[in-house]
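Predict the 3D structure for this chain.
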Amino acid sequence: MMANDVLSPDQELLNARVLVVDDQAVNVKLLEKILDAAGYRNVVTTTDSREAASLFQESPTDLVLLDLNMPHKDGFEVLTEIKAMEKDYPPVIVLTALKDVDSRVKALENGARDFISKPFDRVELLSRMHNMLEVRLLHKAARNQNIILEERVRERTQELEETRMEIIRRLGRAAEYRDNETGLHIIRMSKFSQVLALAAGMDEEDAEMILNASPMHDIGKIGIPDAILLKPGKLDASEWTTMKKHSTIGAKILSGHPSALMQMAREIALTHHEKWDGSGYPMGLRGEKIPFSGRIVALADVFDALTSERPYKNAWPVDEAVTYIKENSGKHFEPCLVELFIASLDKIIAIRDKYAEPGE
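Done. Predicted structure below.
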């Protein structure tokens, strides 16, 4: 059969897997003969009820013809096992000589869908099987369609999430390019931030949020005039006052969205220039009043800035940058984070080397 061929409804029914469980070999042989003559080609049989559950499970089974009165395990026990494996629609027709109502009710309560009394009539058997299989296959088709739709929703959600993250990264790069920096800076410092967050005990989800939010830390530079942002020399007092506004500008750009990611991005943009001793900007926050994400990004950003070449300075050697970080422990940086930074230095340097600027 070609991949594009579609089975007719009758072909689908005749290809259905039918499991027969009856301890009487003569009944099994009779059922095999009837089903073969009717065109069923995927029939599995057993006279040992202990094999029923494993046979049911070894391949998708569309219908079970099940006797109730059997040694070892009776039909009720087998029904319970099948129901545990097939919770949505246990496809069981009970074959029984039992006439009492209690047995039939018990079978229904355990998952049976229909009854055929022994001795059974061939036409009635095939008609009930046909009806049961139609319902079973429609149920399977609906379930498979739901699975396909759920997978498409997952794929679409993942695609939207990846697109959103790419927009965030590019938004961060836009600010860096205005400041004579490259997109590799935001990659490095965001990954430094993730390493520090994990080292500080954050769970992976929150650490990944810092990874994805920190690239927007300097987005407010978009609002700084070129004459100040791109000035090659030292800024005067008035220009420096304007430059410092990029923190609050960034916070305004990123504010107003309910997502945790955007809220953290706003928090980082606003506070990553605050200092542990209270001498930073824009609010002069001190110590633990500075949000933890801002403290992490402050250290990651400064280390990458020191060890990166800029038009106005050469890159510092790593050991000199580390010395600077240590000297500013308790001043610019939280002492605990400095210790974690030193302990994580191998990971930090590996990231720096992997995402080094071209030509370095």
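Residues 9-149 form a domain with the Rossmann fold fold (CATH 3.40.50.2300).
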